[in-house]
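Appendix C: a fully annotated inverse folding record. The material below is reproduced so that readers can follow the format used throughout the book. The structure is listed first as tokens, followed by the designed sequence.
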């Protein structure tokens, strides 16, 4: 079964298992909803535990052949996937808009970013190196080789349905692993389209299996309990990450976790306010605020806070809101629950004394809209400063000293990314080193780059995706003691 939801792009709606597109074993399907209209736009196979274990069988059967495939050949296939993705970037972007809601411009940016993971890991596939050392005794050699870790379960969220999949599939395939991808139930179509594109690029049957399923807990538990599965790579909420880590612990499975964020923006006393506003706008509003890297708390030096808030309010208030395909800058949120949660956080902040500079309420239905919002004078204790907002709301809080800003920024269980604005590079670097986060952007509102190690500290995650580090997550080092 397929859907022609997007002109020029036929998307399979069954499971991809061992190179075949098959229905769920019990025939079950689930709906995909367009967040701009709240209407059902497609339905896809709802994978069962039996389907999940059949995907493990397929990945297991394909594993020896793929691990033995020359790195140059694996690289060529990934490069073909990159080319196909770029060729179809507009169609894929439209598909993302239809099931996720984001603006077309954001979706196009995502497809290009997603494709780059195939190109980057095509280049990395031929650069997996080992090491030979001399034992301290001088009597023998210590040889270390890197081998594919084995079958990987990849679980992805709905906010970047293409990029979170390719950021895992790219390095896994480059390293010689076979995978089972379980996409988020809100956005399975993009993952299925990526699966089809990889097959077209020449990925052998069974190397990539795609398993949409609303039974995520049961499916993940069954796959992780199978001793043939050696790797879990998860991107999603910290709450689900914790649950999965417990399951993985029962089977001692290597786990990479890309979890929630609560990114602080620090606008220091000597910042260029216009640069800071432009950076904060990008860090806050890219993807309508539905990003783990989204600016969640804006700490601005007291001497700049009035000017910053006014300019940010004007910029955010000027953003057009509407269905992603109409050219609007900000699309709907993913579902009704997301709108409700964002509004609760805003109303709680207002009840604690925050001032609404712009926005402050849900938009017009039938889609799931929230008006782009700036809140001033937000209490440091407001819930909105402590929780991931995942919506187009920017809470501004004043501070007096760099040390105070650092302490506020670090006062969270999260540690994914921070943003610092200052015209003094030495000062910005000093502050960056004191921030408890896996990534820092200085004078810019975007850090994501396929060539860079992306990931968090504290409860934002374990491990890195992207860069050379991202490939190592899918390898195991083996030490061979050698006398020669
Ligand atoms: P989520 O609710 O944690 O879901 C993520 C994925 O996990 C989905 O595929 C979901 O499937 C699945 N899942 C849910 N419960 C599960 C369980 N008990 N066992 C196994 N899998 C389960 O997160 P989300 O709402 O999709 O995404 C938003 C979150 O992702 C935010 O917290 C955001 O910060 C985080 N995120 C982090 C990064 C990063 O790189 N650090 C990047 C993007 C997003 P179903 O959809 O079927 O429930």
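Designed amino acids, in order:
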């Amino acid at each position: 079964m397929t859907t022609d939801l997007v002109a020029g792009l036929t998307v399979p709606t069954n499971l991809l298992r061992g190179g075949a597109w098959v229905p769920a074993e019990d025939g079950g399907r689930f709906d995909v909803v367009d967040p701009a209209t709240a209407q059902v736009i497609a339905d896809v196979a709802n994978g069962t535990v039996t389907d999940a274990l059949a995907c493990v069988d397929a990945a297991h059967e394909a594993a020896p052949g793929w691990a033995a495939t020359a790195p140059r050949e694996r690289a060529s296939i990934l490069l073909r996937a990159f080319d196909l993705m770029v060729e179809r970037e507009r169609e894929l972007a439209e598909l993302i808009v239809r099931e996720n809601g984001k603006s077309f411009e954001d979706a196009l940016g995502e497809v290009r970013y997603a494709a780059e993971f195939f190109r980057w890991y095509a280049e990395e596939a031929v650069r997996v190196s080992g090491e030979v050392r001399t034992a301290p005794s001088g009597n023998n050699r210590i040889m270390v080789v890197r081998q594919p870790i084995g079958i990987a379960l990849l679980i992805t969220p709905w906010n970047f349905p293409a990029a979170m999949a390719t950021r895992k599939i790219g390095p896994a395939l480059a390293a010689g692993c076979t995978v089972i991808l379980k996409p988020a139930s809100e956005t399975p179509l993009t993952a299925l389209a990526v699966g089809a594109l990889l097959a077209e690029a020449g990925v052998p049957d069974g190397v990539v299996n795609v398993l949409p399923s609303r039974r995520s807990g049961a499916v993940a538990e069954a796959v992780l309990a199978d001793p043939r599965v050696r790797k879990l790579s998860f991107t999603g909420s910290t709450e689900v990450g914790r649950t999965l880590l417990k399951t993985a612990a029962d089977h001692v499975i290597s786990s990479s976790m890309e979890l929630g964020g609560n990114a602080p923006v620090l606008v220091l006393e000597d910042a260029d306010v216009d640069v800071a506003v432009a950076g904060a706008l990008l860090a806050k509003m890219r993807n309508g605020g539905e990003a783990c890297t989204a600016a969640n708390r804006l700490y601005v030096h007291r001497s700049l806070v009035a000017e910053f808030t006014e300019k940010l309010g004007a910029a955010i208030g000027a953003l057009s809101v509407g269905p992603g395909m109409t050219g609007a800058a900000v699309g709907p949120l993913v579902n009704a629950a997301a709108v409700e949660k964002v509004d609760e956080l805003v109303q709680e902040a207002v009840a604690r004394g925050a001032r609404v500079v712009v926005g402050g309420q849900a938009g017009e239905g039938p889609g799931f809209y929230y008006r782009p919002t700036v809140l001033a004078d937000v209490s440091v204790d407001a819930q909105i400063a402590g929780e991931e907002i995942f919506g187009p709301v920017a809470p501004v809080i004043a501070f007096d000293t760099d040390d105070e800003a650092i302490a506020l920024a670090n006062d969270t269980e999260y540690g994914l990314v921070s943003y610092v604005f200052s015209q003094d590079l030495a000062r910005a670097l000093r502050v960056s080193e004191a921030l408890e986060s896996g990534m820092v952007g200085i004078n810019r509102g975007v850090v994501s780059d396929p060539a860079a190690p992306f990931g968090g500290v504290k409860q934002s995650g374990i491990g890195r995706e992207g860069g050379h580090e991202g490939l190592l997550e899918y390898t195991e080092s083996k030490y061979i003691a050698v006398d020669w």
